[in-house]
Design goal:
350 residues; globular; alpha/beta; single chain
Amino acid sequence: MPEPVLVTGGAGFIGSHVVDALLDAGHDVRVLDALLRAAHRERPDYVDPRAEWIEGDVRDADVASRAVAGVSAVCHQAAMVGLGVDIADIADYVAHNDLGTAVLLEALAARRFRGRLVLASSMVVYGEGRYACAEHGLVRPAPRRPEDLDAGRFEPPCPSCGRPLEPRAVPEDAPADPRNVYAVTKLAQEHLCAAFSRETGVPVTALRYHNVYGPRMPRDTPYAGVASVFRSSLAAGTAPRVFEDGEQLRDFVHVRDVARSNLLALTAPEAVPGAFNVASGTPRSVLDMARALARAFDGRLVPEVTGKWRAGDVRHVFASAEHASSALDFRAREDFDAGMQEFASAPLRA
């Protein structure tokens, strides 16, 4: 029998699309998913029945050992995502993201795995994006102060002279600067996988997803992405509420493009280790996205800019897509307006 590709978290938003992409390309797939109550009520009906199914928690050593047996490659999507509710979530994030990754890596080492490992990472590892000061060049602004945010001063100033900064696209070699618990755990996942690679020689590709949107996103929860929060508001008949002034820049990338980036990393003729931004390469403001989604939904509701802010949020972070294009042959294909039109009517996961 052909050796399957293991997709952890394969019932999730992104993981299920990766499963589809692999199956459509002719690969055998094994799905491992814990069906955590915070994410699922039951096995979703969109999980392709062609995939072998294992329900279980990757943090369980016996489950992890069974899941990795005989696999040709591993696509590690299982994680607890989003900023969460408050610091009381910290142990859950570390347990699901970092302990779960460690148990998976231990199981792979015990099986003498020699395939490829692709890790779902995130742009949150960068913290604030890249900025340039007219006088001091590239700089790293400090975390924004609550008193500035309360006063509506959302743009981070130059740490040397206090002047306004120009946001720039973030390349993969930018220093990591995680600014919330989720970001810390994603960076720790990268470091754990890098240590595993050095010990075993297994090539690891870390895909740093930017703001992913598309069908099968979870409904409005504290752990959902901003596109899902806005879509849930529109479905409930209320205007999307946009934090700050709405001018914060992000890179919105369709989930099918993200799935294709995983397929490329898993199946390229030669392994492509390292970290890669997975993004459209076109920054847009959060308010622009909210307006596009509202127009696509029915056009009757106008996004409301609230001026409110969330601790741990960053101002601007958008990607340089050049490295993924040259080394991984990945370029986003999905049109933004068409993607928003589709997303406006796509079912969300309960």
